[in-house]
C-alpha cells in the first residue's frame, strides 16, 4: 500500500481549446479536476512539479492538490494522463477528487516478478490480466499487484487470484473469482509444415486423339468412342 502523501500546487486555467499548445511550449500541462460532487475545474501545472509528485505518489497514491486561491488542498488521484504517441510528452492530466471516507473503484496494474523455470525450458508464459479492478478506501488502494512467476515450474502450472497477497479486509476485487487464472505456462506451438503433393504424371499413349490426351491430362475419363458402322 502507498502511504506517502505529497502536495502539488496548481493554478486555475483560463486558456482553453487549441490555445493550450502555448502552455505546453512553456513547460505547463493543462489539467482538470472532477469528482466528490463538485463542479469540474480547469487547472494547469508545471511539468516538472507534476512529474515529481507523480513519482512520489506512485500509480494509485493520493496527492493533496492545492488550487491557488483555495484554502484547503483537495485529496485527488491521478485518473488519466494523456501522452503524445511520438514524443511521449504529457499533453493533459485529469485529477479525480475523492472523499477519504468513501470507497472508490480503481484499476490496479498486475506486474510479473521473478523468473520461471518453465519459461527457461521453452514454455510460454501467458498473462491473462494486465490490471484488476478493486474497491477500497482511497488510502487503502494498492499501488500494484505482483505475480511471482518463479512458482511456475512446469507446463500447466498457473497462478490464480487466490494466490495474490493483499489485505482482503480492506481491498475487494471486482469481476473476478478466487479461482480465476492470472498467469499460466503453455507448451510452445509446433510449426505445421504443409506438404505439397506433386501432381501425378499421366502417360499419354502415342497416337491418342486430342480429346483423349486432354482428358488424361485433366485426370478425367476419356470420352467414349462411337463405333463406326
What does this molecule look like?
This protein has 229 residues and is mainly β. The chain has 2 domains: 6-97, Beta Barrel (Ribosomal Protein L25, Chain P), CATH 2.40.240.10; 104-186, Ribosomal protein L25, C-terminal domain (RNA Polymerase Alpha Subunit, Chain A, domain 2). Helix content is 12%, strand content 37%. It has helices at residues 21-25, 47-57, 117-120, 210-217; strands at residues 6-12, 28-35, 38-46, 63-67, 74-83, 90-97, 104-113, 124-127, 131-136, 144-148, 158-160, 172-174, 181-186. The strands form 3 sheets. The chain has a 6-stranded mixed barrel with strand order 1-3-2-6-5-4. A 4-stranded mixed β-sheet has the order 10-7-9-12, with no helix packed on it. A 3-stranded antiparallel β-sheet has the order 8-13-11, with no helix packed on it. The termini are far apart. The model is unreliable at 204-210, 212-223 and 225-229 (pLDDT under 50).
What's the topology here?
Elements: E1 6-12, H1 21-25, E2 28-35, E3 38-46, H2 47-57, E4 63-67, E5 74-83, E6 90-97, E7 104-113, H3 117-120, E8 124-127, E9 131-136, E10 144-148, E11 158-160, E12 172-174, E13 181-186, H4 210-217
Parallel strand pairs: 1-4, 2-6, 7-10
Antiparallel strand pairs: 1-3, 2-3, 4-5, 5-6, 7-9, 8-13, 9-12, 11-13
Amino acid at each position: 500500500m502507498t502511504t506517502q502523501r505529497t502536495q502539488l500546487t496548481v493554478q486555475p486555467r483560463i486558456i482553453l481549446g487549441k490555445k493550450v499548445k502555448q502552455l505546453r511550449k512553456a513547460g505547463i500541462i493543462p489539467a482538470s479536476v472532477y469528482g466528490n460532487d463538485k463542479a469540474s475545474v480547469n487547472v494547469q501545472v508545471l511539468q516538472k512539479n507534476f512529474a515529481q509528485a507523480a513519482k512520489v505518489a506512485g500509480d494509485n497514491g493520493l496527492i493533496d492538490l492545492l488550487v491557488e486561491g483555495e484554502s484547503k488542498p483537495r485529496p485527488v488521484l491521478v485518473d488519466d494522463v494523456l501522452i503524445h504517441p511520438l514524443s511521449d510528452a504529457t499533453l493533459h492530466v485529469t485529477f479525480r477528487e475523492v472523499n477519504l471516507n468513501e470507497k472508490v473503484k480503481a484499476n490496479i496494474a498486475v506486474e510479473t516478478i521473478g523468473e520461471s523455470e518453465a519459461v527457461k525450458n521453452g514454455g510460454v508464459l501467458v498473462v491473462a490480466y494486465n490490471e484488476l479492478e478493486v474497491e477500497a478506501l482511497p488510502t487503502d488502494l494498492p499501488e500494484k499487484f505482483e505475480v511471482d512467476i518463479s512458482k511456475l515450474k512446469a507446463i500447466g502450472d498457473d497462478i490464480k487470484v487466490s494466490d495474490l497477497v493483499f489485505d482482503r479486509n480492506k481491498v475487494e476485487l471486482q469481476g473476478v473469482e478466487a479461482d480465476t487464472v492470472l498467469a499460466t505456462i503453455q507448451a510452445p506451438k509446433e510449426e505445421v509444415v504443409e506438404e505439397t503433393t506433386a501432381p501425378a504424371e499421366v502417360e499419354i499413349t502415342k497416337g491418342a486423339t486430342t480429346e483423349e490426351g486432354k482428358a488424361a491430362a485433366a485426370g478425367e475419363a476419356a470420352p467414349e468412342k462411337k463405333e463406326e458402322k
